Amino acid sequence: MVEYCSQCGAKIKKDSTFCEKCGHNITQKKSQKKSTKNKYVEIIEDKSAEEKQETKKREELESKHSKKYKKISSSVLILIVLLLVSSGIFSVYEMNKYNSLTNDYDSLSSSYNEKVSEYNTLSSRYDSMQSSYNSIQNNYDTLQNNYNSLQSSYNSLQNNYNSLQSSSDSYKRTVEIRYGDGADCEQFITPSNPSVISATTSALGHSSDGDPSWNDMIAINNYVGNNIKYNYDTFDGTREDCWLYPGETLSRGYGDCEDHALLMVSMCKAEGSATWLWCAEIKLQDGTGHMCVFVKVTGGNLFIFEPTSRPEYFFGWMIHGAWNSGTGKPVYQALQQYENECWSGQTVTVLKIFNEQTYNTFNNNQEFSNFWTK
Asked: Residue 221: which of 273, 294, 289 has the closest Cα?
């Protein structure tokens, strides 16, 4: 074994005491080295014993650790097994869940596709219905415009109808008045009519002096009987009786009994106020209606003029018979004379009397007598 100087590091020959290079005492070094070696040997032996003890402890510790490790390994293995089992179970559960979700997805996907198909069908129907609606809306708008136009026409026609109805009612009223029903008959006394005034002047030979005397009434009665011919009313499809206004009677030159009586009373009143002069409507026993003129004489007596002229005879003679008395007669006597000399004894019932101001009706002659004599 090659040795080196501990001072300079030069090689030292075998069995040398000093270093040839630096002179260092090598023997001392070797002695120290040997002593040190022995110490090292002791130390090593001590260490060896310690190492053995440590080895033994280590082995015991390793044995203990090994047992512990085995326990831990077993636990870990069990845990791993459990984890693997749990993982397997979880995997199976998750797989089943996955499969269930997959099935749900497929079902929902199928439902979705069906809904999409239904939606497309409904959308197509909606488009078709929308088109139909638009067409109907257009037709409705057209019909609405037509309706508005027709409504406007209807309103115009309604206004025309109302106007015509009003005119018709007026005409109807005019015709109804001609029947002389109710108080309408008062308006047929027309003393202010120009034709009536002119005829009165012709009958009397002078203009009005405001005082109709008996002679004036006789002259007017004769004028009516001589100038107005008797003529029956023409049946108008509803009633046979149709009254004429005095001016119309003068214009035509003919009329029936009420036309003669209306004209005579109007002419007498054109001569002057005569509140005691009345037109009288009577009914004969055989149901025939007739009109004459009643004069209320002082004391409640009755004087009757019969101005009607017929082709075969003239009833003015009644005036002559009553005129000589100058006072008229009580109601029942005057009526009885009128029945006997004019109507061959037929009973006469007074139905109503009127002039331009008053209208009165009666159910029998007693009511008339009570009114006349009060």
From this structure: 294
Token digits of residue 248: 């119309």
State the Cα angle at 331 between 328 and 333, rounded to 5°. Answer: 75
Question: What is the C-alpha to C-alpha distance for residues 285 and 346, in angstroms, rounded to an integer?
Answer: 5
Q: Which string of DSSP letters, residue by residue, matches 226-241? A: HHSEE-PPPP-SS-S-
Cα dihedral 129/131/133/139 (nearest 10): -150
> Residue 23 has what pLDDT?
76
Asked if the model's pLDDT at residue 310 lies above 50, the reply is: no
Q: In DSSP terms, which residues pair with 38 in a beta bridge?
A: none
Whole-number Å distance between alpha carbons of 187 and 358: 10
Both structure tokens of 280: 């009288």
Question: In sequence order, what are the residues at sequence separation of 6 or more whose Cβ sits closer than 8 angstroms to the Cβ of residue 2?
Answer: 11
Residue 70 pLDDT level (bands cut at 50, 70, 90): low
Residue 215 included in any domain = yes
Identity (one letter) of the amino acid at 2?
V
Three-state SS for 5?
coil
Same domain, 212 and 118: no
Which of left, alpha, beta for 237 (phi over 0: left; psi -120 to 50: alpha)? left
Query: What's the predicted TM-score (pTM) here?
Result: 0.56
**Any idea what the Cα angle at residue 164 is, between residues 163 and 168, rounded to 5°?**
120
The pLDDT score that the predictor gives to residue 252 is 93
User: Which residues are registered as beta bridge partners of 314?
Assistant: 309
Angle between helices 214-227 and 194-204 (to 10 degrees): 110
Instruction: Classify burial at 291, counting beta carbons within 10 Å of its beta carbon; exposed 0-12, middle 13-18, buried 19 or more.
Output: buried
CATH of the domain at 265: 3.10.620
Do 251 and 323 lie in one domain? The reply is yes
Tell me if 264 sits within 8 A of 305, measured CB to CB: yes
